[in-house]
Amino acid sequence: MSEFFLELFSEEIPSSLQRNLRENLLDSFNKLFNEKFISHKKSSSYSTPNRLIIVFEGIQKQVVLRSEETKGPNINAPEVALEGFMRSNNISKKDLFKKITDKGEFYFFKTKSKKSLTYYVRLFSFN
User: Taking Cα atoms as reference points, which of 40, 58, 47, 38 lies closest to residue 14?
Assistant: First the structure.
């Protein structure tokens, strides 16, 4: 089992706000861990006037990453955009499929489910 420790430094946080901030931070990470199917035994949060801390104990060492659909460029986008999308995701054109959304028709690709060590799990995506 492993642990996850996150300590955030900040300007002075008024004592009246510390409890809500640490509870919100812990809730957000609990939600994220549930979405990524990362189980843990115990989670807790702490604060001081200049710090917020969360700790997750007993994190499993391996998780099953389920397949996900990743949205690419619009089908009318320039070929350069499609090539960049394929290169950044290390895929080829045969891995792509088209899908209609409320914003138009886009290229997508679907990742395969696989087992991964917890420390390799991508928690955030800034798309």
Answer: 47
